[in-house]
Every structure is written in structure tokens, then in C-alpha cells.
């Protein structure tokens, strides 16, 4: 059996704890500002990037790397909040196109400054330019085998 050395275990634990703390901080700030969860931001952004013609759910799933069931539920909640519309695709009985509503765009735009501030406060302000470059290099190296 392969056993990681103690440093490898500490690195893994630190990566998980740091990532979780950063996510919780962003989620907390969004909640304090009566905004949706961070996962909604990514969905709204990808729909916005798709343009006025919208995006098909399978394309969105590929861009976000979410399981189909999770995305379907999330899209349902986002639609109920009036942030997106689902339109049937002509000549495709099961197909839909998802489009951002003006309210959805406004919410996505309201979320970004909070998200951006948390990134700056949590990462950018704590690392020198060279530390940030080194961390990015290391994380890319770790992710390369994934």
C-alpha cells in the first residue's frame, strides 16, 4: 500500500481548508448582501457569455462541469427567481435554450464586485506578485495530471 508522507498530507489538508475558507467567505458576503449563492454566478456568467441567442443546457453543463441532475435543479431555482428563461427549441421536442433576463444580468453584475473584492482581499493583497506567480505555477502543475 502507498502511504503519503506527512508533508503531502499537510499540503492536501491545507489546500482543502484554504479553498473551503475562501468559498465560505465569498458565500457569506453574497448572503450578507442578499444575493444568490456563488454557484449561480457561474451559471449566469456562462449564459451571459453565450449572448442573446442563449445556450442549450448540455452546452452549459460542459462549460461548468456539473452533473446533469445538479444543473437541472439549479436552473429550475434560477428560473423560479426570474433570472433566466427557458425557451423551447423549434423542431426539437425536448430541447431548450436558456437566456438571461434583465433581472438575471443585474443580479450577476451585482454579485461580481463582492466576488472580486473577496478575491483581492483573500489572495491578491496577501501575496506578492512573485508569490502569486509561483502559487499559480504550482497549482497548474498539480492540476496538469487531473
From TrEMBL:
Any one GO MF annotation of this record? DNA-binding transcription factor activity
Q: Which PROSITE patterns match?
A: HTH_MARR_2
Q: Which biological process terms from the Gene Ontology are attached to this UniProt entry?
A: response to stress
Q: Ranges for the HTH marR-type domain? A: 8-144
InterPro entries attached here? HTH_MarR-typ (IPR000835), MarR/SlyA-like (IPR039422), WH-like_DNA-bd_sf (IPR036388), WH_DNA-bd_sf (IPR036390)
Domain of life of the source: Bacteria
Any idea what this protein is called? MarR family transcriptional regulator
Organism for this UniProt entry: Ruegeria profundi
